[in-house]
Specification:
Layout (H helix, E strand, L loop, with lengths): L4 E2 L2 E2 L3 E2 L1 H26 L5 H23 L6 H31 L14
Antiparallel strand pairs: 1-2, 2-3
Helix pairs in contact: 1-2
Length: about 120
């Protein structure tokens, strides 16, 4: 069985070692960017909202890189729908089923509420 090499992608097995090293380098650079933005916010060079948005954008890009390459979604993209849609459906059902318990328990957790006994003691 012959393997077809097309750039950084090996057809039968997914990303090549070179692709993994490039993604590792990108993740390292994005981590440094996050620390630099945090330092800029601490020294009032950037506002906290701008820093938050930049770090959030970096985190989203890093999560996508990890999911696509290290979780092999680049190869198994078609199979992803079989995992994601049932998860969303079950998660939604889980929230709907537990919503009455969450709402009813929330009203009973007043820390200033004093319990009184009606038996005269």
């Amino acid at each position: 069985m012959s393997e077809m090499h097309t750039g950084d992608y090996v057809e039968a097995h997914g990303p090549s070692f070179k692709a993994y090293m490039v993604v590792f380098g990108a993740l390292s650079i994005f981590t440094v960017v996050s620390f630099v933005v945090n330092d800029a916010v601490r020294h009032d060079v950037l506002s906290s909202q701008t820093g938050f948005l930049l770090i959030l954008a970096v985190a989203i890009v890093k999560a996508l890189l990890v999911a696509i390459y290290f979780m092999h979604l680049i190869v198994d993209w078609g199979k992803l729908y079989y995992f994601i849609f049932p998860t969303f459906i079950l998660g939604t059902m889980f929230m709907i089923v537990l919503l009455p318990d969450i709402v009813l328990t929330w009203h009973d957790t007043n820390p200033n509420k004093v319990e009184t006994r009606d038996d005269g003691k």
